[in-house]
Amino acid sequence: DQGDGMYGTASESFKDLCKVHEAEVIKKHENKLIVEYNAKKRIVSDFLVPEVQVGDKVRIHFAFVIEKVL
């Protein structure tokens, strides 16, 4: 996690956003989802994968679901 350039000096919360995480959708409201991973909850958008539903396993990156895990 040292990284090159400014990444090495970035906050841990920013570094966490940069990583791809596998999460579970625990709530959906319109195009916003609340997902949970590693005992953390985060609000993300379903813009790229609008068909996801509560209970689905997904991969997230920054503020987006990037794919549904089958």
**Major sheet strand order:** 3-2-1-4-5
Distance between the termini: 29 Å
Evaluate the radius of gyration: 13 Å
The largest sheet, given as strand count, sense and whether it forms a barrel, is: 5 strands, antiparallel
Helical stretch tally: 1
Succession of helices and strands: HEEEEE
Tell me the overall shape: elongated
Percent range for helical residues?
Answer: 10-25%
How many strands?
5
The low-confidence parts are none
Structural class: mainly beta
Average pLDDT over all residues:
92
- Content of β-strand: 35-45%
3D architecture notes:
The protein is mainly β. It is built from one helix and five strands. The protein has one helix at about 10-20; strands at about 20-30, 30-35, 40-45, 55-60, 65-70. It has a five-stranded antiparallel beta sheet, with no helix packed on it. A hairpin with a 2-residue loop joins strand 4 and strand 5.
Task: Tag the structure with descriptive keywords.
single chain; 10% helix; 5-stranded antiparallel beta sheet; 1 helix; 5 strands
List the helices and strands and how they pair.
Blueprint (H helix, E strand, L loop, with lengths): L11 H7 L2 E9 L2 E6 L2 E6 L11 E5 L2 E5 L2
Antiparallel strand pairs: 1-2, 1-4, 2-3, 4-5
What's this, in brief?
With 70 residues, the protein is mostly beta strands.
